[in-house]
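Recall the central idea of this unit: under ordinary conditions, the amino acid sequence of a chain determines the structure it adopts. In this exercise we apply that idea directly, starting from the sequence alone.
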Amino acid sequence: MKIVTQANPKNAEAFVAWGDLLAEKYNEPEAIASYQDALKIDANMPEAHLGLAKSLALSQPERAVAALEKAMATNPNFLEGHLVAAEQNIDSEQYEKAQQEISKALEVNPKSSEAISLLASISFFRNNTDDFNKYVRQVLQTNPFYSNLYDILAENSVRLRLYKEAVGFAREALKINPKDWNAMSVLGVNLMRIGEEEEGKAALEKAYQGDPFNVWSVNTLTLLDSFEHFTRFDTTHFKVKLHEKEVAVLRPYVAELLEKAYDTLTQKYGFKPEGPINFEMYPDHADFAVRTLGLPGIGALGVCFGKLFVMDSPSARKPDAFNWGSTLWHEFTHVITLQITDHKVPRWFSEGLSVYEERKGFPGWGDDLKLEYLSAIKAKKLLPTAELNDGFIRPKYEQQVLVSYYQASLICDYIDQKFGFPAIKKMLELYKKGKSTADVFKEALGLTLEQFDTEFFKSVDDKVKDLEVKSFTQLMSSGEEALAKGDTDKAIEILTKSVEMYPEYTDEHNAYEPLAEAYLKKGNKKAAIDTLKKFMTYSETGYKASLKLSELLLEAGDAAGARQALEAAMYIRPLDMEEHQRLGDLLLNQKQYAPAAREFEALLALNTPDKAGAYYRLAEANFGQGNREGARTNIRKALEIAPSYEPAQELLLKIVK
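Accordingly, the structure predicted from this sequence is:
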């Protein structure tokens, strides 16, 4: 095919066919280039626009939406376009809209097996067994060898996070056609997602033998080979996998937070998820992307499959780019909401509850009102609840996915505040029964979706009615300018107004940090502490502010507050030495020997330049715990490095008495 395109560079159909072949093997970059070559020849070719839409769906969803709209505008009777639109509506659980698109496709081709397979998908997701069986029979009577029926069912199940069901459908496809290598690949990947790692690997190896060009299979097998560099260990409720270069530092913090999340959320929701629950962290974001999607390029921080949840480790991102603690808490909340509903919870509600629970997990965690969200609210860009899944799956403007996360979390906050948390639990029960969102809101809240949206949007408008982006940014600029010119009193006055106007703004060029700096210049440490405390109730990535706050609180005699500030820093940069040293010293002074030992062990794992000091402090912690053997071992290591280290010599004498 490539030879054909080279021989006739004006053959748009050949470029589309070549793009389709590349896309089939998940080679999106080259597929996109081929479709673009076709459009250079024929700018109105619907097949090229559709190919572009499908290939851009994950990496650039806004462009994908525009490309599909262009394809359908060019040819309103484009069968394949209607089928893609139907699939998108199935993804967002808008089944009536999906059926409308399928009806249009069947008007073009009443015997379209793909269209009827999509009807089978909708029937399955709606628990309509009779219709499901009818459509399956209809497809297989037309073509008994059409394994693509079950491929479509499996792939749609994956999009709705029904991974166990996807495994079952992939097996059915392979019964019809044992050489359906796409089904074999889908089977392998989804077996791994439900915790069947060995069987999943075997299926992927078969898929690779049958089709060595499937990038999904190749990438996942390559990742599996890298698992030899991961350390596996168990906690009370989890099977954990951390990379060998990070495990010595991260293990105690990860294990502690996993169990804290489990205890907190299982008690709150009155539900204990089925195990074993697997958790994995990846220091390479590309590996995380392959583990979750089979392909690099995913922008998410974490993904949950029900009994497996995976995420970037802190070293996978730039410093202060994300909070690993809140991400872990977010993803474990998905374990609860997916399993408690048999994976029937809508995407928007599951994501909304995860952000809602982040905010309750630790001070400062969870998304707050960012400038992008404020702008979207002011521009009336929030979606009706019935269409909120679209904001996650097929966004129409930049940042809409993040705006949708925030909106979903506000909906959960609003329901909790107005109807109480039992209403949220009731909604989850109704989703488990297969109820539609309209029915869930009517039964659990006593409101139609339209009534709820009217009340909810009014509450959001009230929240931001006195806040304007332009006036805030102007106020901030003048405050920073006053501080730069040395007019500290004026800076304090202006920056205080900025905080009062927009307390949730904690991103770059926020008012809190320069305001705290101004107070310190005036010698007002109490006001600086109060400012940084308020900042940390909204910020989950304020590493430097956490360290500064801990320092000021310790000076003020508030050891408990200093400890919390340092723990906040640990969830941002656990691989930096400074907070381990500070927290270890603080805990040792408080005679909290076990957690102090953890901090000095982390320092040594991070290869601190002051190894003698770290071994000495670790020995102190061991001795305080009553662990004389550990104390003796570590104090000798300190003295091997620094034989004349007097405090270590004195401690050794105490130990050997």
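The chain has a mean pLDDT of 93.
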